[in-house]
Design brief:
The chain has helices at 3-41, 51-74. The chain has 78 residues and is mostly helical. 81% of the residues lie in helices and 0% in strands.
């Protein structure tokens, strides 16, 4: 094996190792952010609710916003 081949093989191996480490770090960061979001907003199950109930509330809120925007567009004061 020549010296240049050995250098190329070493470079490829070190790049693969660095890519693997970066992937593990990325997955850890995503897990951390997911936990931060869950603790900041609280999951619905934590408060005795369900995801379906939270979705219904969110849909009702969006419908109310749409109603208000339609009223503004038509010139009606709320």
């Amino acid at each position: 094996m020549s010296e240049s081949m050995l250098m190329a093989l070493s470079a490829v191996l070190s790049l693969a190792i660095l890519a693997g480490v970066a992937l593990v770090m990325w997955q850890g960061w995503l897990t951390l952010k997911l936990r931060e979001l869950e603790t900041a907003h609280g999951s619905p199950e934590r408060f005795g609710g369900s995801r379906e109930g939270a979705a219904r509330i969110e849909i009702a809120d969006l419908k109310e916003r749409i109603r208000k925007l339609e009223a503004i567009a038509s010139g009606v004061d709320l």
